[in-house]
Amino acid sequence: MAILVTGATGNIGAQVIQHLVNKGADVRALVRDPSKANFPAGVAVVTGDFLDVDSLRSAFEGVTTLFLLNAVVPDEFTQALIALNLARSAGIERIVYLSVIHADVYVNVPHFAGKFAVERMIEQMGMAATILRPAYFIQNDVAIKDVITGYGVYPMPVGGRGLAMIDVRDIAEIAALELLRREQAPQALPTNRINLVGPDTLTGTDIAAIWSDVLGRQINYGGGDTAAFEQNLKQFMPPWMAYDMRMMGERFLTDGMLPEGGDAEHLTTLLGRPLHSYREFAKATAAAA
Q: Do 31 and 46 meet the contact criterion of CB atoms below 8 Å apart?
């Protein structure tokens, strides 16, 4: 019995692996380049790629539980479908899939629409999975800390509806707990969805106020112009991705990322501790600058 973690070299995947190792699980890490693998002792490294069918077939041999995390790439949907089809063929009945909150609402955002289609495949194919639906990752804002500290502006198009931002440490730990719950169950468990949210639902103005307090000077919210947001993103990411992020930002403004009743309380109970807050992140980021 083994748990295979995809996205293993990324921030979330690496933390999932560490949590599983700490619990004594038999863990395998799927990587494209073994020379870049740096995992705790006892983790078996398997080489594979979502578009290399034969490599995935080999990677899935002897696996009982799968953590499926797909990067935001143009063929993300295809990669996920291949992985799920091959997992099904390999007899893997225990899956944890990292989707996104409101995937069924943000229907015009490419990577949201792709994840929702994967959720539908899981259901329609009768597969057993925990579908994790995280809100905006708090750590995404590491990339804009220089704009915040250097220009006094919080530039993300968060808007006034609010985002229930979640810390990636909480995402990884919950994913590991769900993997272990499924792995250790005497039989495959039914499919369930879990919204992954933080303790606070914050507007753009709220976040600017947190940074103002942490830094001791005025930080203004300036994230309402999604066209300018797209143009700025094109300086360091492909145009298709910048457009995808713009579409996401526009849905932030119109719909927000709002928790359902009891979401945060459920996660707190699951973890046995409080969720990490955005203020905690801002303080740590400012201290490290």
A: yes
Q: Which residue has the tokens 């201290």?
A: 287
| Number of residues in the chain | 289
Amino acid type, 203: T
User: Around Cβ 236, how many Cβ atoms within 10 Å?
Assistant: 9
pLDDT tens digits along 220-269: 999 889 999 999 999 999 999 999 999 999 999 999 999 999 999 999 99
Residues 193-212 pLDDT 10s: 999 999 999 999 999 999 99
**pTM > 0.90: yes or no:** yes
Quick check: 194 and 131 in contact, CB under 8 A? yes
Give pLDDT tens digits for 72-127. Answer: 999 999 999 999 999 999 999 999 999 999 999 999 999 999 999 999 999 999 99
User: Which residues are paired to 257 by β-bridges?
Assistant: 163
Q: Which of 229, 86, 93 is nearest to 159 (CA)?
A: 229
Give the whole-angstrom CA distance, residue 83 versus residue 60.
9
Q: Which amino acid is at 30?
A: L
